[in-house]
Design goal:
- Keywords: Nucleus.
- GO terms for molecular function: DNA binding.
- Residues 1-119, 588-625, 924-973 are annotated as: Disordered.
- 61% of the residues lie in helices and 1% in strands.
- The protein is an all-alpha fold.
- Among the domains are: 122-238, no CATH class; 264-367, no CATH class; 385-414 and 436-558, Leucine-rich Repeat Variant (Alpha Horseshoe); 561-580 and 627-714 and 730-752, no CATH class; 757-825 and 846-876, no CATH class; 998-1073, no CATH class; 1085-1094 and 1108-1195, no CATH class; 1216-1305, no CATH class.
Length: 1306
């Protein structure tokens, strides 16, 4: 709102008040036309207000002059009246002219007349500062304004003739506004403050509301009833207003009513006259305003509630609650859905504590929290609750009140006391029920079922948003026992549906809720367990999978205390057995249509194609299928409880025993009578689900039982000799005792019946474990108890495997029992002859049988069982015989495809034919690409070329029990049959399947598992001569093209073992059993392997990029194999004290390799490799230096000579050290090779390369030679050997570099 100009065209408005900032001093000149346009452009509010004020000039100079004359007359009359009043005005300050900012939104259309220049003037900068965005400025302005108004009012009340002053100041306020006892300036200020609260400029509403509150509260002359009417009249809505103008007027009235309520005058007037209707009128006005627009309802209710809080109970009942508008508002609340009316009713009832008839539609009679949250009442007020969504994203003020009613402090405190104590199930059961807690439980249950699920979650996105907001309000006070009601089935399904769709409108809301939920349970294991169980129970154990989060995984991982883990374990077991959750209706969400991963028909095997069934089959999964999925999650979660827990060994063992018992009961046994069985021996009751557990779940229990036992073995500390009796009970012994105890209960039986062989093996394993336990406890210092302990773990794993796969492991179980029995009789497996049997003995060595048994268990064993096998092999690998080792290596070399090069003769151990090992074929005979993957008839077997041992060919039609073998490795028929049982099964599958893909993959998997045993063997026996045997066989398998063709991971695994466990091992074979000739031959073939070129396949078909890349990678791997093998063999040779003659043969091998390097372009021998050999074994470089110089001079390939310069330089540096102590020896050695060096330099200068890089390389080499010659004082001999032509050529080629050498001649 603007203000009218009070000056003529030539006049200037000036603010001279020292309190105003400089920016408020405005000097403007406007023409008559501009003023008229300014008035015409005011909004409708401003124009209407201007029309109400008489004396405001609309146009023309005469009107301005007339106004000034009238103002002068009024001023004179006012001064005369003041002088008559005992000279009161003489001490007043000098009047200050006041200018009004015409751009001010809150300024009135009228302005102070000339009388404002009198001693009772009102500075208008107060009103400007009330709109400031700075709160301190607004407060200072309001304080200054009220002080000034108080002073003016006091002066006005002291005037004898108030009517004359009122009559002269009609420009300031209307006579009929009811404020007859107020000074004109006060009446003007009130009118301006009321209009100011309707301004949207900066913080005008806040400032002017404060400015209105203070005068009303301290100036008693202001009539509240008149002021109430003035507010309504000044901010009335007319038909000519626009939408924004109407909104500003309504908000202005709201702020004005708020100022009036906070002033305290309403309460004072009631206290002075209890029959005064002012409170009722105020309530009617405020509620009537709230009824106009929805956005006015909540703030209006807050104003009324703030006012009611200051009132005694009596006026609330007799005045506020008797307001007609309020009664009407409450009557319509449930129909239109008015949450603010419900909020007001709750607060008023809390204030008066009386069941008033006005509440009949909103509150139950008589009122109680139980009745309020009853299903009928929640249905009645459902519209009020649902419509609170209009203020989103802000949460309506009603909900904190509802939350406090749902969770009173008594319930929260009681839950806190319980959570401090132990969270054991027994204490919770014995705790007496509290009526308050029972009522709160019923309330929260009804609220979640009726309103949250019935009205919000099944409705729009906005109402689902409200559901999340309500739960966020509940979380800080929510007891753990209420989580099951809050995180209900429908809510969890809604949460999963939103989180599974990232582009959902509510995805951020749900994600934020999940973050807050995780933070809420951070320090409370009870709440964490309750949340975890609720999420998984209502998602059938698939919450993380569906939402693509790690929520449940993180929740479970944060359980670190024994109490928390125990509580989690108890909840999991109860969920499995009690079958508390059975979905009554299928969800329409997409995740609910996923087929169950387990069969519900209690079959023993799972069909791999079960997911591809018809829709009818998927629909028929039903309740049982979902329950099975949930139970499968329970089973899988049990072993993981101990994974992240920070527990003492004793606490961890207690939890392990509880998990073992549960898995054993649910997975191994069934109760023939009822679902509960009591063991008097264990003094414990065991419970099964009411519905029979499917075989698939029983198998899962057994698998998790195996995993738990395997994990316990990994974390166990090795047993020390001599104190085995002091070891506590381990999980294996506890499990076996528990197993035998349950077997003795008549009403309990195994979940599946065993055939005669399996039953016999089952009993034998139980007896074997018992014997092993005794041996472990009684073993002395001479025996390692870890051997028996590892065997016990393997026995238990094998026992469980018999239950998992009937008919497959009975033979292996019998052989393992026999091995253990023989070990008991000899007290140590080392007593057995490790080199095989005598000619007349038919019985194999115990260790050979043990190795065969372990190998037979590997192909179809589970991961826990493989871990136990590896542990057994770790403690027995030092006793493995050569025959047993060769059987393992034979598996690595097995190939389902016959080799192209087959030999008729049988080959014995590699040690028997070491002189022919690594016999590489000539390069001319090879036409294949190294590492090229293709059909076997197009490949040359690199393993033949390297090791000279032809791979064993396997007939495609070999029967399962055939005794015919192309390479029996010195084994008799019985041994071969025992070893080939698992391989024969693979071959049989290959014959029965097209393409043999399954058989090939099984064989690769079997090889990988055997490689793990070989890796353990190499780690434990790195200094034994058998390492060479393992090395030769692994190299042969690595260089076999079918290895790379069948599996790249297999090739990489072999290469990794050779590198880490052989080449980089701290120890190496130092035994003298291996002959020198074999080592020399091995060295020669490795050098040829390192120099072997990469050959392209001679074929018209271009190989794919993938095949080319695979071939190149394999070629680089083989090259590295040759290089590293050379280093390793040389390390072995150096450790042996061979004669000079034998070492000369080693030098001949390197001479041959160097000759091939210089004379053939095909040689791929790397000069860096030779440098490394000479660096590691300097004696080789020293002995070959002269030959190296000669070969360089006579090189057939020019670039080879240049490549060898660095090799010559480094060798020369180590051969001829230049220092004072070795000056004479170095000079002598240099003189010996000076002739060859001169010839090499002449050759280099005579064939100077054209490339700058090569020329620089030659210059660098020759510079080093010149420097050494000069240092050893051989310059004269060197120059003489060069001759005149050589000197001239060197001078032309090297310039100053050679001239500096010549200068040192004398």
């Amino acid at each position: 709102m603007g203000s009218k100009k009070r000056s003529n065209d030539d006049s200037t408005e000036l603010v001279e008040n020292d309190n105003l900032p400089d920016s408020s001093i405005v000097k403007k000149k406007k023409s008559k036309t501009e003023k008229m346009n300014t008035v015409a452009n005011y909004d409708s509010d401003t124009a209407a207000a201007a029309a109400e004020v008489p004396g405001v000039a609309s146009s023309g100079k005469d009107m301005e002059k007339k106004k000034m004359r009238k103002a002068s007359d009024k001023q004179r009359r006012l001064e005369a009246a003041l002088k008559k009043n005992n000279g009161v005005g003489a001490s007043r300050p000098k009047p200050i002219p006041v200018a009004v900012n015409s751009n001010s939104d809150e300024a009135d259309d009228e302005s102070l007349p000339s009388a404002a220049a009198s001693s009772s003037s009102l500075p208008l900068n107060y009103f400007t500062d009330l709109a400031s965005s700075d709160a301190s400025v607004r407060e200072a302005a309001a304080e200054s304004l009220v002080l000034r108004l108080q002073e003016i009012q006091k002066q006005y009340e002291m005037l004898p003739d108030k009517e004359s002053v009122d009559g002269g100041l009609m420009l300031e306020a209307e006579k009929n506004d009811g404020l007859d006892n107020c000074a004109p300036h006060l009446r003007y200020a009130l009118r301006r403050l009321i209009r100011g609260v309707s301004s949207s400029r900066e913080c005008a509403r806040q400032g002017f509301a404060l400015g209105l509150t203070l005068p009303v509260s301290v100036i008693s002359s202001i009539n509240v009833e008149s002021l109430l009417n003035l507010i309504a009249d000044s901010l009335s809505v007319s038909s000519s207003m626009t939408g924004q103008d109407i909104k500003e007027c309504l908000l202005g009235r709201l702020f004005a009513y708020g100022a009036l309520a906070r002033s305290g005058r309403l309460i004072e007037d009631w206290q002075s006259d209890k029959d005064s209707p002012i409170i009722k009128e105020f309530t009617n006005a405020l509620i009537g305003l709230a009824a106009k627009k929805r956005y006015l309802q909540e703030p209006a209710v807050h104003i009324l509630l703030d006012f009611v809080d200051k009132l005694p109970t009596e006026p609330v009942v007799t005045h506020v609650m008797e307001a007609p508008e309020l009664y009407k508002w409450f009557e319509q609340a449930t129909e239109v859905g008015n949450p603010d009316a419900l909020l007001l009713a709750l607060k008023l009832h809390e204030k008066v504590s009386v069941d008033h008839p006005i509440f009949s539609k909103l509150l139950p009679v008589p009122f109680s929290s139980g009745k309020f949250f009853s299903a009928d009442h929640l249905t009645a007020i459902g519209n009020c609750l649902k419509e609170s969504t209009f203020c989103q994203p802000r949460v309506h003020s009603l909900w904190p009140v509802i939350v406090d009613m749902l969770l009173p402090e008594a319930v929260v405190q009681s839950e806190d006391v319980v959570s401090v104590s132990s969270s054991s199930k027994k204490q919770k059961r014995n705790r007496k029920s509290n009526p308050v807690e029972e009522e709160a439980t019923n309330n929260i249950r009804n609220f979640c079922e009726v309103f949250m699920e019935g009205d919000l979650l099944s409705s729009t996105h906005v109402r689902k948003h409200l559901a999340f907001d309500i739960l966020l309000l509940l979380l800080p006070k929510l007891p753990a026992s209420f989580i099951q009601h809050v995180l209900s089935l429908k809510f969890v399904q809604c949460l999963m549906d939103i989180l599974s769709t990232k582009d959902s409108w509510l995805h951020k809301v749900a994600t934020h809720f999940l973050v807050e939920l995780m933070d809420w349970v951070k320090d409370d294991d009870t709440k964490r367990v309750a949340v975890t169980m609720a999420l998984q129970k209502h998602s059938e154990g698939k919450f993380d999978n569906i939402t693509r989060t790690k929520t449940v995984k993180v929740l479970a991982a944060e359980l670190e205390t024994e109490d928390g883990c125990t509580l989690y374990l108890q909840n999991l077991m109860n969920l499995f057995v009690d079958e508390q959750h059975v979905p009554e209706e299928s969800s329409n969400m997409k995740w609910s249509l996923e087929p169950c991963s387990l069969n519900s028909d209690q079959s023993q095997t799972t069909d791999d194609n079960s997911d591809n069934g018809s829709n009818e089959e998927k629909d028929s999964v039903g309740t049982t299928g979902n329950s099975d999925v949930l139970k499968s999650w329970v089973i899988e979660s049990l072993p993981g409880i101990l994974k992240h827990a920070k527990l003492s060994p004793e606490a961890k063992l207690r939890l392990q025993k509880q998990i073992l018992k549960f898995l054993a009961v649910q997975g191994l046994f069934l109760a023939s009578l009822g679902t509960e069985v009591t063991s008097f021996e264990l003094q414990e009751k065991f419970k099964w689900p009411k519905t029979a557990t499917p075989a698939a779940l029983c198998q899962m229990c057994i698998e998790q039982l195996q995993l738990l036992l395997s994990n316990s073995q990994k974390i166990e500390k090795p047993l020390s000799k001599g104190n085995a009796l002091e070891q506590p009970d381990d999980p294996v012994s506890y499990f076996m005792k528990f197993l035998s105890t349950l077997q003795n209960i008549p009403s309990v039986s195994l979940f599946r019946s065993l055939n005669e062989a399996d039953e016999k093996a089952f009993k034998e394993l139980q007896e074997t474990e018992s014997k092993l336990l005794k041996e472990e406890r009684n073993c002395g210092l001479s025996t390692d108890p870890n051997k028996f302990h590892a065997l016990r773990h393997l026995v238990v794993q094998l026992l469980l495997q018999i239950l998992l796969h009937p008919g497959e492991f009975s033979e292996a179980a019998t052989e393992l029992s026999v091995c253990c029995d023989k070990a008991f009789s000899s007290l140590d497996l080392l007593k057995s002859d490790g080199q095989g049997e005598a000619d007349d003995e038919e019985e194999p060595a115990v260790m050979d049988v043990l190795v065969d048994t372990l190998l037979s268990l590997l192909p179809h064993s589970s991961a826990p069982m493989r871990s136990s096998i590896e542990q057994v092999f770790k403690y027995f690998c030092q006793d493995v015989t050569n025959d047993g080792l060769l059987r393992m290596l034979r598996v690595i070399k097995k190939d389902l495809k016959p080799s192209r090069h087959q030999e008729d003769q049988d080959s014995d151990d590699l040690d028997d034919d070491e002189e022919d090992c690594l016999a590489i074929e000539d390069a001319e005979e090879e036409n294949e690409e190294m590492g090229e993957t293709g059909e076997s008839d197009e490949q040359t077997d690199d393993s033949e070329a390297v090791t000279g041992v032809v791979p064993m060919a396997v007939d495609r039609e070999v029967p399962e029990n055939s005794d015919d073998s192309d390479d029996d490795d010195g084994m008799d028929d019985d041994a071969m049959f025992r070893m080939d049982t698992y391989l024969a099964q693979i071959f049989k599958e290959k014959r029965n399947q097209a393409g043999g893909e399954t058989a090939q993959s099984q064989l690769v998997l079997f090889k990988l598992r055997v490689l793990s045993l070989l890796e353990i063997y190499l780690h434990e026996n790195s200094d034994k001569p058998q390492v060479m045997t393992v090395y030769l066989n692994l190299v042969q398998a690595m260089l076999n093209p079918s290895t790379a063709e069948s599996s790249l991971p297999l090739l990489q695994r072999i290469w990794g073992i050779i590198q880490k466990k052989i080449f980089k091992a701290k120890e190496f074979p130092k035994d003298e059993s291996m002959e020198f000739s074999a080592l020399a031959s091995l060295l020669e073939k490795n050098l040829k392997l390192a120099a072997k070129p990469f050959k392209s396949k001679k074929s018209g078909v271009d190989p794919s990029k993938k095949k080319q890349s695979a071939a190149w990678n394999r070629y680089k791997m083989i090259t590295h194999l040759g290089q590293n093998s050379t280093y390793w063999v040389m390390k072995i040779i150096d450790s042996r004290k061979f004669s000079e003659t034998e070492l000369e043969k080693i030098l001949d091998v390197f001479r041959s390799a160097v000759t091939g390097y210089f004379d053939s372009r095909k040689s791929q021998l790397k000069i860096d490799f030779l440098e490394e050999v000479f660096r590691r074994r300097p004696w080789i470089g020293h002995q070959l230096f002269g030959f190296l110089l000669e070969a360089s001079v006579n090189a057939n390939v020019e670039f080879r000579r240049l490549e060898a310069l660095d090799l010559i330089t480094e060798t020369l540096r180590s051969l001829i050290p230049i220092n004072e102590n070795t000056q004479a020896d170095s000079r002598k050695t240099m003189t010996t090779h000076l002739k060859e060096l001169i010839l090499l330099i002449k050759e280099l200068v005579g064939n100077m390369p054209e490339a700058k890089v090569r020329r620089a390389q030659v210059r660098k080499f020759c510079g080093r030679i010149f420097q050494m010659v000069s240092s050893l004082k051989l310059t004269k001999s060197f120059l003489k050997g060069l001759g005149q032509d050589g000197r001239t050529a060197c001078e032309d080629a090297f310039g100053d570099l050679f001239l500096n050498l010549k200068n040192t001649e004398h």
